[in-house]
Write a structure and sequence with these properties.
6-stranded parallel beta sheet; alpha/beta; globular; single chain; 11 helices; 2 domains; Rossmann fold
Length: about 230
């Protein structure tokens, strides 16, 4: 962050609420999605390159569907793909669950001990988000969840973050928004939140690096910075 440690400390000291993204930030759901998508595409006779999977990170499914048609052509059946990928995904997560990203528990503990309010802001539909949280064992962690159902426009529009700040009763300028994808960073930055980029895919996206206020390796690093924000 430009301005050095003192500017960073002052910015973090102003934080009254933290807004988490879900996929790729709290949960390693994207790995399971990518596995399911590639398997489903293979069953339909299509090759689903890994790089194309990564380009879909952070998108709502309607936007994913549009990208699929652009990539594979109009002969591609998105409804059948959706059905097959759903079946594949359930098989994967019922067998192996969904992993929680490094540092989440440390950050959550710090927020609870510091009485900092927090919420979830996801481009997923509410039912899908709740399902993923249950598979990860986090079903009772987030009292406030703002999903794609709750706003007119999904990310990269800022609506989800603005709604999350409203639900927290915290001005968006005093919210710290945690995101792992360029699309999420665009939404968080446009909302006016203090935006932290924790990339789920390396190297970090250059455009997201330019937009974010702070780049962190993982949520452990976020927790350390928040813990150190108060003067000794």
């Amino acid at each position: 962050m430009n301005g050095g440690a003192d500017v960073l400390r002052e910015a973090l000291r102003a934080v009254e609420g933290v807004i988490f993204d879900l996929d790729g930030l709290v949960l390693d759901t994207e790995t399971t999605y990518f596995m399911a998508w590639r398997h489903a595409a293979g069953l339909m006779g299509y090759q689903f390159p890994a790089g194309f999977c990564l380009s879909l990170s952070g998108l709502h499914y309607q936007d994913v569907e549009m990208r699929l048609l652009e990539f594979f052509g109009n002969a591609f059946d998105p409804q059948e793909f959706n059905r097959l990928s759903g079946v594949c995904w359930y098989r994967i997560v019922e067998k192996q669950g969904i992993n929680i990203k490094k540092g989440f528990w440390a950050l959550l503990k710090l927020l609870q001990e510091s009485d900092i309010r927090y919420s979830l802001a996801t481009n997923s539909r509410l039912n899908n988000a709740l399902e993923c949280l249950e598979f990860a064992g986090l079903g009772d962690v987030f009292e406030i969840i703002v999903a794609r159902d709750h706003v007119d426009r999904g990310k990269p529009a800022p609506d989800i973050f603005l709604k999350a700040a409203e639900s927290l009763s915290v001005p968006i300028s005093r919210c710290l928004a945690l995101e792992d994808s360029p699309i999420g960073i665009s939404a968080a930055s446009a909302s006016g939140a203090f935006t932290v980029y924790v990339p789920s895919v390396l190297p970090a996206d250059p455009s997201a690096r330019e937009l974010c206020n702070l780049l962190c390796r993982d949520l452990d690093e976020v927790a350390i910075l928040l813990a150190a924000r108060r003067p000794c």
